[in-house]
Design brief:
With 396 residues, the chain is mainly α. 69% of the residues lie in helices and 4% in strands. It has 14 helices and three strands. It is globular, with a radius of gyration of 22 Å.
């Protein structure tokens, strides 16, 4: 009888998930697949790179979504405490992956930036596994120093490794947005544990002053042919989008996105009826897919997407609140920060609230690597919730 109860409890554990979180993720994936097809079928059907197949990107994204869901369910049944033992390996592995981008034949350059690795015929974007590894590493390191974070030297010791990884991402793959997101995730995780708020207010003020200084320097002293000059062009295009030299070049994509958003109105032009995706917005199924959502589904559709993300973040927040221990809580906060930062930055870029940078919209922008590793993060969250729930039941 005891063995039957034990076997039944194991089965219950294996197939017990937070269905609210799973339903939210499922709706985001399905909605994302619909919009990826709608945004990509014209470009894919006209491009040799996609075999002139209008459904190419839909099938690719669906394949990776199914793979990601399968891996998510596997990770959801792995005791999240075990990830703590791989924290240092994750840091070392992240550094090695970024350095491999420099190896000829392994690093793949796309649009002037080397952000992809190709190993044994498998091509993936390095930034995505690095984000997962940094969440696990930061959670483990913060747990180690949780009681002494008020010491500024300890605070620097916690943030320094992630800062180094962020600088490597920026310098080697020329990916400022990912570097900022990786650093931002760890910063938010430390903020959640830190006993005081005022150091973060001071750092926020210093960050604003530094950003203003960088913009001023870039606008007044940067060499147009340097990397700073490249960012200069983006900042100038953001500040003066209708200047003749920018409207047809660096500001073109963002302006076309604004036209798409403005033309959608309340209910949109109807699914599949976007005009801007017909060659006006380059690769509308990537960073700018939210503009196509606005054009085809209007304010109603855009609001629905935002509400789905708000609900997903609410579920992550609720799970973090009920986690059994600090490590589990930090893992969930890291995933929360990852999703929140990418959604907010993507929406700010497409609505021209900040200069153009390559930030994808989770579950909506086409990208197999991003989908798989984000679902791995969701799997870790599911296990944190499951472990905490079963522990509470044991106490009762």
């Amino acid at each position: 009888m005891a063995s039957k109860r034990k076997r039944g409890r194991i089965q219950t554990y294996l197939f017990s998930y937070d269905m609210n979180l799973i339903v939210a993720v499922f709706f985001l994936i399905i909605f994302g697949l619909i919009m990826i097809y709608s945004a990509s079928y014209y470009t894919a059907g006209m491009s040799k790179a996609y075999n002139y197949d209008p459904t190419f990107l839909l099938k690719s994204q669906a394949k990776y979504s199914v793979l990601g869901l399968a891996v998510m369910l596997i990770v959801a049944n792995i005791d999240y405490h075990n990830w703590r033992y791989f924290a240092m390996l994750g840091l070392i592995g992240s550094a090695l992956l970024i350095l491999l981008l420099l190896v000829p034949g392994l690093g793949v350059k796309v649009k002037g930036a080397t952000r992809w690795l190709q190993i044994a015929g498998i091509q993936f974007q390095v930034a995505e596994p690095v984000k997962v590894a940094m969440i696990v590493f930061s959670a483990a390191l913060i747990c180690k120093y949780a009681n002494s974070l008020s010491d500024f030297k300890v605070f620097l010791r916690v943030m320094a490794p992630v800062a180094v990884i962020s600088v490597m991402i920026l310098k080697i793959s020329n990916n400022m947005s990912t570097a900022a997101i990786v650093l931002g995730i760890s910063f938010m995780m430390v903020f959640m544990v830190h006993p005081r708020y005022y150091p973060f207010v001071i750092l926020a003020i210093l960050g604003i002053v530094l950003a203003a200084g960088v913009i001023y320097y870039t606008l007044n002293f940067a060499d147009p042919d340097s990397e700073s000059g490249f960012r200069l062009g983006r900042i100038q295009a953001w500040l003066m989008p209708y200047a003749e030299q920018f409207e047809s070049d660096k500001a073109y994509q963002s302006l076309q996105g604004i036209y798409a958003i403005g033309s959608g109105g309340l209910m949109g032009k109807g699914l599949g009826n976007s005009i801007q995706k017909l060659g006006r917005i380059p690769e509308p199924f990537n960073d700018m897919i939210f503009t196509i959502i606005c054009e085809e589904l209007g304010i109603f559709g855009a609001g629905l997407v935002i509400l789905l993300f708000i609900y997903l973040l609410y579920r992550l927040y609720s799970i973090a609140q009920t986690a059994e221990d600090l490590f589990g809580r930090l893992l969930v906060v890291g995933v929360f920060a990852h999703v929140a930062l990418q959604v907010v930055l993507n929406l700010m870029v497409v609505t021209r609230l900040c200069p153009t940078t390559g930030v994808t919209l989770p579950f909506f922008s086409a990208g197999g690597t991003a989908s798989v590793f984000l679902l791995i993060e969701i799997g870790m969250v599911l296990n944190v919730e499951k472990w905490g729930r079963f522990k509470r039941e044991d106490i009762k």
